[in-house]
C-alpha cells in the first residue's frame, strides 16, 4: 500500500525539522566562524559611485548582507551592487541611482525591526539576504512570514504602484570553504528550505520575482575551481538583472 503524498511530505518535513533541531548547535558554531571570517576579509576601500548618468535614472534599492556590503573585493566597481546597477542602467537606457541597506549580519527579523527600510521612491528593490538566517537556524515558516512582510513594506514605502522587488536565492554556502560533512548536510538543507520558501512567497506577491542564485557548474567543472569573489559578484549581478527582463 503506497503512502499518500501529503503524508510523505509531512514525514519529510518532520525529518528536516529534526535535522535542523539536532544541527542547531553546529549552525551556531558556523555563525561564529562566519562573523570572524567576514571581519577579516576584504571590502571596498574606494568611494562608492553616485550612480550612472541618464536622462531619467532608475531608482534602485539594495538590501542584503555580505554581498551587498562588497565582501571580498577592494573596489566598489566590482561589487554586486554596482555591477547590477550598471546592467540595469544600460539595459533600460535610463541610467541608475541607488540606495544600499547592508550589514554583514543582517537578518530578515533585524531588518524589519527598523522603523523604515529606506525604500522611498525606489522603482526596483533587490533583496539579497539569508546567509545569517541560515546559520542562525531561522525556521522556513518564520522566514516566509517575514519575507512577505518585507516585500509589502518595500512596495508601500516606495510610494510607487509599480515598484518591483527581486528576491535573490541564498548562495550554496557549503561551496565557499571546507565544511565537515555533518555540518554541510545541515547547512545545505537549510539553504534549500529557505530558498523554497522564498520562491513560494514571491510567486504569490504581485510585482515580486524570485532570482535563483547562479549555478556553480560549467559542464563537468565547478566554477569554484576557478573561484574569485569578483566573478561571484559579477555572475550574481547578471542573475539579478536578468530577473527584470521580459
UniProtKB/TrEMBL annotation:
Superkingdom of source: Bacteria
Xref: InterPro entries: SGNH_hydro_sf (IPR036514)
Name recorded for this polypeptide: SGNH/GDSL hydrolase family protein
Organism (species): Frondihabitans peucedani
High-level lineage: Bacteria, Bacillati, Actinomycetota, Actinomycetes, Micrococcales
